[in-house]
Amino acid sequence: MPFYDVIVVGGGHAGCEAAAAAANLGSKTLLITMDMTKYGQMSCNPAMGGIAKGQIVREIDALGGYSGIIADKTTIQFRMLNQSKGPAMWSPRSQNDRFRFTEEWRTILENTDNLDLWQDAVVSLIIEDKKVKGVRTKIGIEFNSSTVILTNGTFLNGLMHIGAAKMQGGRIGESAAYNITEQLFEHGFKTGRLKTGTPVRIDGRTIDFTKLQEQKGDEEYSKFSYLPGTESKLKQRSCWITHTSKEVHSELEKGFDFSPMFDGTIQAAGPRYCPSIESKLVTFAEKEKHQLFLEPEGENTIEYYLNGYSSSLPWDVQLRGLHKIVGLENAKIFRPGYAIEYDYFEPTQLYHTLETKLVENLYFAGQINGTTGYEEAGAQGIMAGINAHLKSTGSDEPFVLRRNEAYIGVLIDDLVTKGVDEPYRMFTSRAEFRILLRQDNADFRLTEKSYKIGLASRERMDLLNEKYDSIQQIIEFTRSFSVKPRFVNGLLLQKGTSELKQGVKLVDIILRPQISIFDLIEVITPFKHFLENIPSERKKEILQGAEIAIKYEGYINREQNLAEKLSKFDDIVIENKFNYTELKSISTEARQKLTNIKPKTIGQAKRIQGVSPSDINVLLVMMGR
After folding, report:
1. Which SS3 state, helix, strand or coil, does residue 115 take?
2. SS3 of 482, please?
3. Pairing with 154, which of 86, 141, 421, 520 sits 20 to 30 Å away (CA)?
4. pLDDT, tens digit, for every residue of 210-230?
5. CA nearest 331: which of 302, 310, 308?
6. Distance between CA atoms of 332 and 322, rounded to whole angstroms?
Protein backbone atom coordinates (compact mmCIF):
# COMPACT_ATOMS: atom_id res chain seq x y z
CA MET A 1 0.00 0.00 0.00
CA PRO A 2 1.21 3.58 -0.66
CA PHE A 3 2.54 5.71 2.20
CA TYR A 4 0.47 8.79 3.03
CA ASP A 5 1.37 12.11 4.61
CA VAL A 6 -2.10 12.44 6.16
CA ILE A 7 -4.84 9.89 6.82
CA VAL A 8 -8.28 11.21 7.78
CA VAL A 9 -10.71 8.82 9.47
CA GLY A 10 -14.37 9.79 8.98
CA GLY A 11 -16.13 11.57 6.13
CA GLY A 12 -18.34 14.00 8.03
CA HIS A 13 -17.96 17.77 8.04
CA ALA A 14 -14.69 17.68 9.99
CA GLY A 15 -13.23 14.87 7.92
CA CYS A 16 -14.11 16.39 4.56
CA GLU A 17 -12.61 19.77 5.45
CA ALA A 18 -9.51 18.13 6.94
CA ALA A 19 -8.88 15.91 3.92
CA ALA A 20 -9.48 18.69 1.40
CA ALA A 21 -7.21 21.13 3.25
CA ALA A 22 -4.33 18.68 3.63
CA ALA A 23 -4.56 17.56 0.00
CA ASN A 24 -4.84 21.10 -1.37
CA LEU A 25 -1.73 22.05 0.60
CA GLY A 26 0.14 19.27 -1.18
CA SER A 27 0.07 16.36 1.26
CA LYS A 28 -0.63 12.91 -0.11
CA THR A 29 -3.89 12.29 1.73
CA LEU A 30 -6.23 9.36 2.30
CA LEU A 31 -9.83 9.80 3.48
CA ILE A 32 -11.39 6.65 4.96
CA THR A 33 -15.13 6.53 5.62
CA MET A 34 -17.65 3.75 6.13
CA ASP A 35 -20.07 5.06 3.49
CA MET A 36 -18.94 7.11 0.50
CA THR A 37 -22.52 8.22 -0.18
CA LYS A 38 -22.60 10.16 3.09
CA TYR A 39 -19.80 12.73 2.79
CA GLY A 40 -20.69 15.82 4.82
CA GLN A 41 -23.97 14.23 5.82
CA MET A 42 -26.41 16.56 7.53
CA SER A 43 -27.28 14.08 10.26
CA CYS A 44 -29.59 16.50 12.05
CA ASN A 45 -31.20 19.67 10.69
CA PRO A 46 -30.62 20.52 7.00
CA ALA A 47 -29.07 23.94 7.62
CA MET A 48 -25.73 25.72 7.88
CA GLY A 49 -24.80 28.76 9.92
CA GLY A 50 -26.87 30.63 12.46
CA ILE A 51 -25.85 32.66 15.51
CA ALA A 52 -22.00 32.58 15.65
CA LYS A 53 -22.05 29.44 13.49
CA GLY A 54 -22.55 31.57 10.38
CA GLN A 55 -19.43 33.51 11.26
CA ILE A 56 -17.54 30.20 11.48
CA VAL A 57 -18.73 29.13 8.02
CA ARG A 58 -17.48 32.44 6.59
CA GLU A 59 -14.15 31.90 8.37
CA ILE A 60 -13.81 28.41 6.90
CA ASP A 61 -14.45 29.92 3.49
CA ALA A 62 -11.96 32.74 4.04
CA LEU A 63 -9.32 30.11 4.85
CA GLY A 64 -10.02 28.27 1.60
CA GLY A 65 -12.38 25.58 2.89
CA TYR A 66 -15.53 24.33 1.20
CA SER A 67 -18.41 24.47 3.69
CA GLY A 68 -19.51 27.92 2.54
CA ILE A 69 -19.26 27.11 -1.16
CA ILE A 70 -21.27 23.91 -0.79
CA ALA A 71 -23.84 25.61 1.43
CA ASP A 72 -24.27 28.35 -1.19
CA LYS A 73 -24.74 25.90 -4.06
CA THR A 74 -27.35 23.87 -2.17
CA THR A 75 -29.29 26.70 -0.50
CA ILE A 76 -33.08 26.57 -0.63
CA GLN A 77 -33.46 29.50 1.78
CA PHE A 78 -31.02 32.13 3.09
CA ARG A 79 -31.49 34.54 5.99
CA MET A 80 -29.22 37.05 7.71
CA LEU A 81 -30.14 36.78 11.37
CA ASN A 82 -30.00 39.63 13.91
CA GLN A 83 -30.09 42.46 11.39
CA SER A 84 -31.96 44.59 13.92
CA LYS A 85 -28.79 44.53 16.04
CA GLY A 86 -25.28 45.78 15.34
CA PRO A 87 -23.10 44.16 12.65
CA ALA A 88 -21.12 42.21 15.26
CA MET A 89 -24.26 40.14 15.78
CA TRP A 90 -25.27 39.59 12.15
CA SER A 91 -25.21 35.86 11.43
CA PRO A 92 -25.87 34.22 8.04
CA ARG A 93 -27.92 31.02 7.93
CA SER A 94 -28.97 28.81 5.04
CA GLN A 95 -31.56 26.07 4.68
CA ASN A 96 -30.07 23.42 2.43
CA ASP A 97 -30.96 20.48 0.26
CA ARG A 98 -29.30 17.75 2.33
CA PHE A 99 -29.05 15.37 -0.65
CA ARG A 100 -27.37 17.91 -2.92
CA PHE A 101 -25.11 18.95 -0.04
CA THR A 102 -23.47 15.53 0.23
CA GLU A 103 -23.38 15.17 -3.57
CA GLU A 104 -21.47 18.46 -3.84
CA TRP A 105 -18.99 17.30 -1.19
CA ARG A 106 -18.37 14.07 -3.08
CA THR A 107 -17.85 15.94 -6.35
CA ILE A 108 -15.27 18.21 -4.72
CA LEU A 109 -13.42 15.38 -3.00
CA GLU A 110 -13.32 13.25 -6.15
CA ASN A 111 -11.78 16.16 -8.05
CA THR A 112 -9.16 17.10 -5.44
CA ASP A 113 -5.56 16.34 -6.38
CA ASN A 114 -3.45 14.35 -3.88
CA LEU A 115 -6.58 12.85 -2.29
CA ASP A 116 -7.41 9.13 -2.29
CA LEU A 117 -10.75 7.81 -1.04
CA TRP A 118 -11.37 4.46 0.68
CA GLN A 119 -14.60 2.92 1.99
CA ASP A 120 -13.94 0.90 5.13
CA ALA A 121 -14.01 1.07 8.93
CA VAL A 122 -10.87 1.82 10.91
CA VAL A 123 -10.62 -0.53 13.90
CA SER A 124 -7.26 0.48 15.37
CA LEU A 125 -4.33 2.87 15.10
CA ILE A 126 -0.74 1.82 14.52
CA ILE A 127 1.14 3.40 17.42
CA GLU A 128 4.85 2.94 18.08
CA ASP A 129 6.90 4.77 20.70
CA LYS A 130 4.01 7.16 21.39
CA LYS A 131 3.82 8.11 17.71
CA VAL A 132 1.00 7.20 15.34
CA LYS A 133 2.21 5.42 12.21
CA GLY A 134 -1.03 4.62 10.44
CA VAL A 135 -4.32 2.72 10.76
CA ARG A 136 -5.76 -0.79 10.45
CA THR A 137 -9.15 -1.34 8.86
CA LYS A 138 -11.94 -3.83 9.39
CA ILE A 139 -11.06 -5.81 6.28
CA GLY A 140 -7.48 -6.18 7.49
CA ILE A 141 -5.58 -3.54 5.53
CA GLU A 142 -2.81 -1.44 7.07
CA PHE A 143 -2.35 2.09 5.75
CA ASN A 144 0.85 3.81 6.88
CA SER A 145 1.21 7.57 7.23
CA SER A 146 3.07 10.42 8.88
CA THR A 147 -0.07 11.77 10.59
CA VAL A 148 -3.62 10.62 11.35
CA ILE A 149 -6.71 12.76 11.97
CA LEU A 150 -9.65 11.15 13.78
CA THR A 151 -13.03 12.71 12.93
CA ASN A 152 -15.34 9.93 14.09
CA GLY A 153 -18.41 12.03 14.92
CA THR A 154 -20.99 10.11 16.92
CA PHE A 155 -19.78 6.72 15.71
CA LEU A 156 -17.38 5.72 18.52
CA ASN A 157 -19.37 3.06 20.39
CA GLY A 158 -22.53 4.83 19.28
CA LEU A 159 -25.78 3.69 20.91
CA MET A 160 -29.21 4.98 19.84
CA HIS A 161 -32.32 5.12 22.02
CA ILE A 162 -36.03 5.24 21.11
CA GLY A 163 -37.86 4.61 24.34
CA ALA A 164 -36.76 1.21 25.66
CA ALA A 165 -35.40 0.21 22.25
CA LYS A 166 -31.63 0.37 21.85
CA MET A 167 -29.67 0.12 18.62
CA GLN A 168 -25.94 0.15 18.12
CA GLY A 169 -24.88 2.63 15.48
CA GLY A 170 -23.49 6.04 14.74
CA ARG A 171 -26.57 7.22 12.85
CA ILE A 172 -29.93 5.60 12.17
CA GLY A 173 -29.31 2.68 9.79
CA GLU A 174 -25.50 2.90 10.09
CA SER A 175 -23.13 0.81 12.19
CA ALA A 176 -20.97 2.20 14.98
CA ALA A 177 -17.15 2.21 15.15
CA TYR A 178 -15.47 0.07 17.78
CA ASN A 179 -12.10 -0.58 19.43
CA ILE A 180 -10.53 2.87 18.91
CA THR A 181 -11.74 4.26 22.24
CA GLU A 182 -10.46 1.23 24.10
CA GLN A 183 -7.06 1.40 22.39
CA LEU A 184 -6.59 5.08 23.18
CA PHE A 185 -7.76 4.55 26.76
CA GLU A 186 -4.91 2.07 27.13
CA HIS A 187 -2.53 4.80 25.96
CA GLY A 188 -3.68 7.07 28.79
CA PHE A 189 -6.44 9.10 27.13
CA LYS A 190 -9.35 10.32 29.25
CA THR A 191 -12.63 9.50 27.58
CA GLY A 192 -16.31 10.02 28.36
CA ARG A 193 -19.81 9.79 26.92
CA LEU A 194 -21.99 12.55 25.49
CA LYS A 195 -25.50 12.56 24.06
CA THR A 196 -27.25 14.29 21.24
CA GLY A 197 -30.54 13.70 19.47
CA THR A 198 -32.76 14.35 16.51
CA PRO A 199 -36.53 14.75 15.95
CA VAL A 200 -39.14 12.98 13.84
CA ARG A 201 -39.11 13.35 10.07
CA ILE A 202 -42.57 14.20 8.73
CA ASP A 203 -44.40 13.49 5.46
CA GLY A 204 -45.14 16.97 4.09
CA ARG A 205 -48.26 15.69 2.31
CA THR A 206 -49.89 15.25 5.72
CA ILE A 207 -49.12 18.75 7.08
CA ASP A 208 -51.85 21.40 7.12
CA PHE A 209 -49.80 24.44 6.14
CA THR A 210 -52.87 26.72 6.27
CA LYS A 211 -52.63 26.60 10.06
CA LEU A 212 -48.91 27.44 10.18
CA GLN A 213 -46.96 30.70 10.07
CA GLU A 214 -44.83 30.92 6.94
CA GLN A 215 -41.18 31.97 7.28
CA LYS A 216 -39.64 32.98 3.97
CA GLY A 217 -36.00 33.66 3.25
CA ASP A 218 -34.53 37.12 2.69
CA GLU A 219 -35.74 38.78 -0.50
CA GLU A 220 -32.26 40.05 -1.27
CA TYR A 221 -30.03 37.07 -1.95
CA SER A 222 -26.90 36.63 0.15
CA LYS A 223 -24.38 33.85 0.52
CA PHE A 224 -21.51 32.53 2.61
CA SER A 225 -18.58 32.34 0.21
CA TYR A 226 -16.41 35.29 -0.77
CA LEU A 227 -15.85 33.65 -4.15
CA PRO A 228 -18.10 34.61 -7.10
CA GLY A 229 -20.20 31.99 -8.84
CA THR A 230 -21.33 30.01 -5.81
CA GLU A 231 -24.98 31.06 -5.97
CA SER A 232 -27.74 28.47 -5.63
CA LYS A 233 -29.69 27.44 -8.70
CA LEU A 234 -32.26 25.58 -6.60
CA LYS A 235 -35.89 26.49 -6.00
CA GLN A 236 -36.25 28.55 -2.82
CA ARG A 237 -38.58 27.16 -0.16
CA SER A 238 -40.22 28.46 2.99
CA CYS A 239 -39.96 27.16 6.54
CA TRP A 240 -43.04 27.08 8.76
CA ILE A 241 -43.61 27.89 12.43
CA THR A 242 -45.93 26.21 14.93
CA HIS A 243 -45.89 25.67 18.69
CA THR A 244 -46.41 23.05 21.32
CA SER A 245 -49.19 23.53 23.88
CA LYS A 246 -50.29 22.30 27.31
CA GLU A 247 -52.14 19.50 25.53
CA VAL A 248 -48.98 18.47 23.70
CA HIS A 249 -46.98 18.59 26.92
CA SER A 250 -49.51 16.44 28.77
CA GLU A 251 -49.40 13.81 26.04
CA LEU A 252 -45.61 13.68 26.03
CA GLU A 253 -45.39 13.55 29.82
CA LYS A 254 -47.37 10.31 29.77
CA GLY A 255 -44.29 8.66 28.29
CA PHE A 256 -41.74 10.00 30.79
CA ASP A 257 -41.71 6.71 32.72
CA PHE A 258 -40.49 5.04 29.53
CA SER A 259 -37.94 7.70 28.60
CA PRO A 260 -34.27 6.66 28.68
CA MET A 261 -33.56 10.28 29.62
CA PHE A 262 -35.32 9.84 32.95
CA ASP A 263 -35.09 6.15 33.84
CA GLY A 264 -31.31 6.18 34.17
CA THR A 265 -30.60 4.45 30.86
CA ILE A 266 -28.88 7.51 29.41
CA GLN A 267 -26.16 8.79 31.73
CA ALA A 268 -24.35 11.04 29.24
CA ALA A 269 -24.75 14.82 29.21
CA GLY A 270 -26.75 16.29 26.36
CA PRO A 271 -26.46 19.68 24.66
CA ARG A 272 -27.70 22.40 27.02
CA TYR A 273 -28.61 24.77 24.19
CA CYS A 274 -30.34 22.22 21.97
CA PRO A 275 -32.30 20.10 24.46
CA SER A 276 -34.78 17.36 23.71
CA ILE A 277 -38.46 18.24 23.98
CA GLU A 278 -38.78 16.16 27.16
CA SER A 279 -35.84 18.05 28.71
CA LYS A 280 -37.55 21.34 27.85
CA LEU A 281 -40.73 20.26 29.60
CA VAL A 282 -38.78 19.54 32.79
CA THR A 283 -36.31 22.44 32.68
CA PHE A 284 -38.89 25.02 31.60
CA ALA A 285 -41.93 23.58 33.34
CA GLU A 286 -43.49 27.05 33.64
CA LYS A 287 -43.66 27.54 29.86
CA GLU A 288 -47.00 26.76 28.25
CA LYS A 289 -45.61 26.44 24.72
CA HIS A 290 -42.38 26.02 22.78
CA GLN A 291 -41.73 27.22 19.24
CA LEU A 292 -41.19 24.62 16.53
CA PHE A 293 -39.87 25.03 12.98
CA LEU A 294 -40.82 22.81 10.05
CA GLU A 295 -37.84 22.80 7.71
CA PRO A 296 -37.86 21.22 4.22
CA GLU A 297 -35.13 18.62 3.72
CA GLY A 298 -34.55 19.56 0.09
CA GLU A 299 -35.67 21.33 -3.07
CA ASN A 300 -38.26 18.76 -4.14
CA THR A 301 -38.67 16.27 -1.30
CA ILE A 302 -41.83 16.01 0.80
CA GLU A 303 -39.75 15.25 3.92
CA TYR A 304 -39.74 17.84 6.72
CA TYR A 305 -37.55 18.20 9.79
CA LEU A 306 -39.33 19.36 12.97
CA ASN A 307 -36.75 21.60 14.62
CA GLY A 308 -37.29 21.84 18.39
CA TYR A 309 -38.89 18.40 18.80
CA SER A 310 -35.79 16.25 19.36
CA SER A 311 -36.77 13.26 21.47
CA SER A 312 -35.85 9.82 22.77
CA LEU A 313 -39.39 9.03 23.95
CA PRO A 314 -41.11 5.87 22.65
CA TRP A 315 -42.12 6.33 19.04
CA ASP A 316 -45.84 6.09 19.75
CA VAL A 317 -45.59 8.77 22.46
CA GLN A 318 -43.75 11.05 20.03
CA LEU A 319 -46.49 10.49 17.44
CA ARG A 320 -49.38 11.12 19.85
CA GLY A 321 -47.74 14.34 21.01
CA LEU A 322 -47.14 15.34 17.39
CA HIS A 323 -50.84 14.95 16.59
CA LYS A 324 -51.70 17.53 19.27
CA ILE A 325 -49.62 20.19 17.52
CA VAL A 326 -51.48 22.74 15.37
CA GLY A 327 -51.10 21.83 11.71
CA LEU A 328 -49.79 18.34 12.44
CA GLU A 329 -53.02 16.73 13.63
CA ASN A 330 -52.92 14.16 10.82
CA ALA A 331 -49.18 14.03 10.25
CA LYS A 332 -47.48 10.83 9.20
CA ILE A 333 -43.83 10.32 10.03
CA PHE A 334 -41.04 8.66 8.10
CA ARG A 335 -39.12 7.86 11.27
CA PRO A 336 -39.23 8.84 14.95
CA GLY A 337 -36.69 10.93 16.76
CA TYR A 338 -33.93 9.26 18.72
CA ALA A 339 -31.12 10.02 21.14
CA ILE A 340 -27.57 8.82 20.58
CA GLU A 341 -24.76 8.31 23.07
CA TYR A 342 -21.17 8.26 21.86
CA ASP A 343 -17.58 8.43 23.08
CA TYR A 344 -15.53 11.61 23.12
CA PHE A 345 -12.06 12.49 24.41
CA GLU A 346 -11.42 15.30 26.86
CA PRO A 347 -10.09 18.09 24.58
CA THR A 348 -7.67 19.44 27.21
CA GLN A 349 -5.52 16.52 26.00
CA LEU A 350 -4.89 18.50 22.79
CA TYR A 351 -2.53 21.26 21.74
CA HIS A 352 -4.00 24.27 19.95
CA THR A 353 -3.01 22.58 16.69
CA LEU A 354 -5.47 19.78 17.64
CA GLU A 355 -2.58 17.32 17.88
CA THR A 356 -2.87 15.07 20.93
CA LYS A 357 -0.40 15.50 23.77
CA LEU A 358 -0.13 11.78 24.48
CA VAL A 359 0.44 10.41 20.96
CA GLU A 360 2.52 12.46 18.53
CA ASN A 361 1.19 13.10 15.01
CA LEU A 362 -2.35 12.11 16.03
CA TYR A 363 -5.06 14.78 15.64
CA PHE A 364 -8.70 14.94 16.77
CA ALA A 365 -11.40 17.08 15.12
CA GLY A 366 -15.16 17.39 15.52
CA GLN A 367 -17.50 15.66 17.93
CA ILE A 368 -14.68 13.44 19.17
CA ASN A 369 -13.58 16.64 20.98
CA GLY A 370 -16.97 17.17 22.60
CA THR A 371 -18.44 19.72 20.20
CA THR A 372 -21.82 19.76 18.50
CA GLY A 373 -22.70 21.21 15.11
CA TYR A 374 -21.53 20.91 11.52
CA GLU A 375 -19.86 24.32 11.63
CA GLU A 376 -17.76 23.64 14.74
CA ALA A 377 -16.74 20.31 13.22
CA GLY A 378 -15.76 21.81 9.87
CA ALA A 379 -13.72 24.50 11.61
CA GLN A 380 -11.75 21.94 13.59
CA GLY A 381 -11.36 19.82 10.49
CA ILE A 382 -9.73 22.50 8.37
CA MET A 383 -7.39 23.47 11.22
CA ALA A 384 -6.41 19.85 11.88
CA GLY A 385 -5.86 19.29 8.15
CA ILE A 386 -3.60 22.34 7.91
CA ASN A 387 -1.57 21.40 10.97
CA ALA A 388 -1.26 17.73 10.05
CA HIS A 389 0.10 18.82 6.66
CA LEU A 390 2.58 21.20 8.29
CA LYS A 391 3.71 18.49 10.73
CA SER A 392 4.14 15.91 7.98
CA THR A 393 6.33 18.33 6.00
CA GLY A 394 8.56 19.01 9.01
CA SER A 395 7.41 22.58 9.56
CA ASP A 396 8.18 24.08 12.98
CA GLU A 397 5.49 26.75 12.56
CA PRO A 398 2.01 25.55 13.57
CA PHE A 399 -1.08 27.32 12.24
CA VAL A 400 -2.99 28.62 15.26
CA LEU A 401 -5.65 31.34 15.34
CA ARG A 402 -5.99 33.55 18.40
CA ARG A 403 -9.21 34.54 20.12
CA ASN A 404 -9.07 38.04 18.66
CA GLU A 405 -8.53 36.67 15.14
CA ALA A 406 -11.42 34.25 14.64
CA TYR A 407 -14.36 32.46 16.21
CA ILE A 408 -12.38 29.37 15.22
CA GLY A 409 -9.66 30.61 17.57
CA VAL A 410 -12.22 31.05 20.37
CA LEU A 411 -13.63 27.58 19.72
CA ILE A 412 -10.31 25.74 19.85
CA ASP A 413 -8.95 27.76 22.76
CA ASP A 414 -12.11 27.05 24.76
CA LEU A 415 -11.80 23.33 24.06
CA VAL A 416 -8.13 22.83 24.87
CA THR A 417 -8.07 25.28 27.80
CA LYS A 418 -11.41 24.74 29.52
CA GLY A 419 -12.50 21.31 28.34
CA VAL A 420 -16.15 20.27 28.13
CA ASP A 421 -18.69 18.58 30.37
CA GLU A 422 -21.49 18.79 27.80
CA PRO A 423 -21.59 19.15 23.99
CA TYR A 424 -19.96 22.49 23.14
CA ARG A 425 -21.82 24.94 20.92
CA MET A 426 -20.46 28.26 19.71
CA PHE A 427 -22.24 31.50 20.63
CA THR A 428 -21.29 35.12 20.02
CA SER A 429 -21.19 35.55 23.81
CA ARG A 430 -18.18 33.23 24.02
CA ALA A 431 -16.04 35.74 22.11
CA GLU A 432 -14.53 38.74 23.91
CA PHE A 433 -13.89 40.59 20.64
CA ARG A 434 -17.18 40.31 18.76
CA ILE A 435 -16.79 43.69 17.04
CA LEU A 436 -13.56 42.44 15.49
CA LEU A 437 -14.93 38.99 14.61
CA ARG A 438 -17.79 40.03 12.34
CA GLN A 439 -19.17 37.86 9.55
CA ASP A 440 -18.44 40.55 6.96
CA ASN A 441 -14.67 40.74 7.55
CA ALA A 442 -13.60 37.10 7.85
CA ASP A 443 -11.64 37.50 4.62
CA PHE A 444 -9.72 40.50 5.99
CA ARG A 445 -8.87 38.53 9.10
CA LEU A 446 -7.91 35.17 7.63
CA THR A 447 -7.40 34.96 3.87
CA GLU A 448 -3.89 36.42 3.79
CA LYS A 449 -2.81 34.13 6.64
CA SER A 450 -4.08 31.12 4.70
CA TYR A 451 -2.59 32.35 1.43
CA LYS A 452 0.86 32.54 3.04
CA ILE A 453 0.78 28.85 3.93
CA GLY A 454 -0.49 27.89 0.47
CA LEU A 455 -4.16 27.07 1.07
CA ALA A 456 -6.15 30.16 0.06
CA SER A 457 -5.91 30.73 -3.68
CA ARG A 458 -4.48 33.66 -5.62
CA GLU A 459 -8.04 34.40 -6.72
CA ARG A 460 -9.07 34.87 -3.10
CA MET A 461 -6.18 37.26 -2.49
CA ASP A 462 -7.02 39.27 -5.60
CA LEU A 463 -10.65 39.53 -4.49
CA LEU A 464 -9.54 40.57 -1.01
CA ASN A 465 -7.24 43.29 -2.33
CA GLU A 466 -9.95 44.56 -4.68
CA LYS A 467 -12.44 44.71 -1.80
CA TYR A 468 -9.97 46.48 0.50
CA ASP A 469 -9.07 49.07 -2.15
CA SER A 470 -12.73 49.69 -2.99
CA ILE A 471 -13.68 50.20 0.65
CA GLN A 472 -10.82 52.64 1.18
CA GLN A 473 -11.82 54.58 -1.93
CA ILE A 474 -15.40 54.88 -0.68
CA ILE A 475 -14.26 56.03 2.76
CA GLU A 476 -11.95 58.63 1.25
CA PHE A 477 -14.73 59.89 -1.03
CA THR A 478 -17.14 60.32 1.90
CA ARG A 479 -14.50 62.20 3.91
CA SER A 480 -13.70 64.61 1.12
CA PHE A 481 -17.10 65.16 -0.56
CA SER A 482 -19.27 67.96 0.86
CA VAL A 483 -23.07 67.78 0.84
CA LYS A 484 -25.35 70.83 0.78
CA PRO A 485 -28.53 70.82 2.90
CA ARG A 486 -30.97 71.08 -0.02
CA PHE A 487 -29.85 67.71 -1.42
CA VAL A 488 -30.35 65.64 1.74
CA ASN A 489 -32.78 67.42 4.09
CA GLY A 490 -35.76 65.63 2.56
CA LEU A 491 -34.17 62.26 3.26
CA LEU A 492 -33.13 63.31 6.77
CA LEU A 493 -36.68 64.34 7.65
CA GLN A 494 -38.06 61.13 6.18
CA LYS A 495 -35.67 59.10 8.37
CA GLY A 496 -36.54 61.04 11.51
CA THR A 497 -33.25 62.88 12.00
CA SER A 498 -32.52 66.61 12.13
CA GLU A 499 -32.01 68.69 9.01
CA LEU A 500 -28.69 70.27 8.05
CA LYS A 501 -28.20 74.00 8.62
CA GLN A 502 -25.06 74.09 6.53
CA GLY A 503 -23.00 71.83 4.29
CA VAL A 504 -21.16 68.87 5.85
CA LYS A 505 -18.94 66.05 4.67
CA LEU A 506 -20.79 62.99 3.41
CA VAL A 507 -19.16 60.89 6.13
CA ASP A 508 -20.92 62.98 8.81
CA ILE A 509 -24.30 62.00 7.40
CA ILE A 510 -23.36 58.31 7.23
CA LEU A 511 -22.37 58.50 10.91
CA ARG A 512 -25.99 59.19 11.84
CA PRO A 513 -27.59 55.96 13.15
CA GLN A 514 -30.84 56.62 11.27
CA ILE A 515 -29.07 56.81 7.89
CA SER A 516 -27.75 53.93 5.83
CA ILE A 517 -25.09 54.41 3.18
CA PHE A 518 -27.53 52.81 0.75
CA ASP A 519 -30.06 55.61 1.41
CA LEU A 520 -27.65 58.15 -0.05
CA ILE A 521 -26.93 56.53 -3.42
CA GLU A 522 -30.01 57.90 -5.21
CA VAL A 523 -29.93 61.21 -3.32
CA ILE A 524 -26.29 62.17 -3.92
CA THR A 525 -25.78 61.89 -7.67
CA PRO A 526 -21.96 62.32 -7.61
CA PHE A 527 -21.79 59.48 -5.04
CA LYS A 528 -23.89 57.28 -7.33
CA HIS A 529 -21.58 58.01 -10.27
CA PHE A 530 -18.52 57.31 -8.12
CA LEU A 531 -19.90 53.90 -7.15
CA GLU A 532 -20.11 52.90 -10.82
CA ASN A 533 -16.40 52.08 -10.49
CA ILE A 534 -17.09 49.56 -7.72
CA PRO A 535 -17.40 45.91 -8.89
CA SER A 536 -21.14 45.53 -9.46
CA GLU A 537 -21.43 41.90 -8.36
CA ARG A 538 -19.86 42.76 -4.98
CA LYS A 539 -21.25 46.27 -4.51
CA LYS A 540 -23.50 45.43 -1.54
CA GLU A 541 -20.70 43.59 0.28
CA ILE A 542 -18.23 46.42 -0.32
CA LEU A 543 -20.67 49.18 0.65
CA GLN A 544 -21.56 47.34 3.85
CA GLY A 545 -17.87 47.00 4.65
CA ALA A 546 -17.32 50.72 4.12
CA GLU A 547 -20.36 51.67 6.21
CA ILE A 548 -19.31 49.44 9.12
CA ALA A 549 -15.79 50.87 9.00
CA ILE A 550 -17.21 54.41 9.14
CA LYS A 551 -19.94 53.97 11.73
CA TYR A 552 -18.03 51.72 14.13
CA GLU A 553 -14.49 53.04 13.72
CA GLY A 554 -14.21 54.13 17.36
CA TYR A 555 -15.54 50.83 18.73
CA ILE A 556 -13.33 48.80 16.40
CA ASN A 557 -10.19 50.74 17.33
CA ARG A 558 -10.96 50.48 21.04
CA GLU A 559 -11.47 46.72 20.85
CA GLN A 560 -8.36 46.29 18.70
CA ASN A 561 -6.28 48.15 21.29
CA LEU A 562 -7.70 45.98 24.07
CA ALA A 563 -6.97 42.83 22.09
CA GLU A 564 -3.38 43.93 21.53
CA LYS A 565 -2.90 44.60 25.25
CA LEU A 566 -4.27 41.21 26.22
CA SER A 567 -2.38 39.37 23.49
CA LYS A 568 0.91 40.13 25.23
CA PHE A 569 0.03 37.36 27.68
CA ASP A 570 -0.18 34.90 24.79
CA ASP A 571 3.41 35.82 23.91
CA ILE A 572 4.78 34.81 27.34
CA VAL A 573 5.66 31.14 26.95
CA ILE A 574 5.55 29.04 30.12
CA GLU A 575 5.53 25.60 28.54
CA ASN A 576 7.96 23.27 30.38
CA LYS A 577 9.06 26.16 32.63
CA PHE A 578 7.46 24.97 35.88
CA ASN A 579 6.81 21.87 37.91
CA TYR A 580 3.43 23.07 39.12
CA THR A 581 3.12 20.41 41.82
CA GLU A 582 6.04 22.09 43.64
CA LEU A 583 4.60 25.62 43.45
CA LYS A 584 3.09 25.95 46.93
CA SER A 585 2.49 29.67 46.42
CA ILE A 586 -0.42 28.99 44.05
CA SER A 587 -3.72 27.36 44.96
CA THR A 588 -4.21 23.60 45.05
CA GLU A 589 -6.80 23.81 42.27
CA ALA A 590 -4.42 25.86 40.12
CA ARG A 591 -1.64 23.30 40.65
CA GLN A 592 -3.95 20.51 39.58
CA LYS A 593 -5.38 22.33 36.55
CA LEU A 594 -2.00 23.62 35.33
CA THR A 595 -0.40 20.17 35.73
CA ASN A 596 -3.24 18.54 33.82
CA ILE A 597 -3.62 21.04 30.96
CA LYS A 598 0.03 22.15 30.66
CA PRO A 599 -0.70 25.59 29.16
CA LYS A 600 1.74 26.88 26.59
CA THR A 601 1.43 30.56 27.51
CA ILE A 602 0.36 32.83 30.35
CA GLY A 603 -2.63 33.83 28.21
CA GLN A 604 -3.85 30.25 28.05
CA ALA A 605 -3.22 29.77 31.78
CA LYS A 606 -5.35 32.88 32.53
CA ARG A 607 -8.30 31.26 30.75
CA ILE A 608 -8.22 28.00 32.68
CA GLN A 609 -11.15 27.73 35.06
CA GLY A 610 -9.85 27.52 38.61
CA VAL A 611 -6.66 29.50 37.96
CA SER A 612 -7.07 32.84 39.74
CA PRO A 613 -5.49 36.24 38.97
CA SER A 614 -3.27 35.82 42.03
CA ASP A 615 -2.02 32.49 40.66
CA ILE A 616 -1.16 34.21 37.39
CA ASN A 617 0.67 36.98 39.25
CA VAL A 618 2.85 34.36 40.96
CA LEU A 619 3.76 32.85 37.59
CA LEU A 620 4.53 36.30 36.15
CA VAL A 621 6.80 37.14 39.10
CA MET A 622 8.63 33.85 38.70
CA MET A 623 9.05 34.65 34.98
CA GLY A 624 10.55 38.02 35.94
CA ARG A 625 7.62 39.97 34.50
Report:
1. strand
2. strand
3. 141
4. 999 999 999 888 899 999 999
5. 302
6. 9
